[in-house]
Amino acid sequence: xxxxxxxxxxxxxxxxxxxxxxxxxxxxxxxxxxxxxxxxxxxxxxxxxxxxxxxxxxxxxxxxxxxxxxxxxxxxxxxxxxxxxxxxxxxxxxxxxxxxxxxxxxxxxxxxxxxxxxxxxxxxxxxxxxxxxxxxxxxxxxxxxxxxxxxxxxxxxxxxxxxxxxxxxxxxxxxxxxxxxxxxxxxxxxxxxxxxxxxxxxxxxxxxxxxxxxxxxxxxxxxxxxxxxxxxxxxxxxxxxxxx
Length: 244
Description:
Distance between the termini: 15 Å
Radius of gyration: 17 Å
């Protein structure tokens, strides 16, 4: 099976230099809390009775040669690497997660809901690990092939009835494309916000993007995405680079 997407993190189109503390952040990072995805994410969590935004945070766990670490999709994944996504929403709703072909006819594999988790309802603040198995840890393993893999995450407050959306169709346009490919820069919709803990590399798509430098190791590689269009599903594509 091919790999999945990871999260890109870091140096905003050449504007980010190595920064160690939030005090040293450049001016473009000093955004008002309402324009910061992490701040918006927390606000919705703290006000569950209000419909402020739809959002989720995620990070990638990598197992390589028996050792586990937190990484972003800047990582160059190689054969026999195993990964899984840690996903946490800020609202009660539904999630659809797919492995899709970057070039091709659409969906490759449904990751969630799955046979062991047929109910795709998600709860605010509750982290789930994907792929999921109730009996043992499940992972996505990279094979010997090379290329770019994409994971599409779609979240919605209501269960999707539109067939193309519910099935993650290739015709669904992502609100955010987290990618390290310069040919796909700028794929962040006006209503979407992204924050990420930088790990080096480059983040493409500057619109509504803020960069948080966080010392806490438990937040390393974490990406937060929110949308203010609460009545619409939020669709995010995450690209992973697979090398030999």
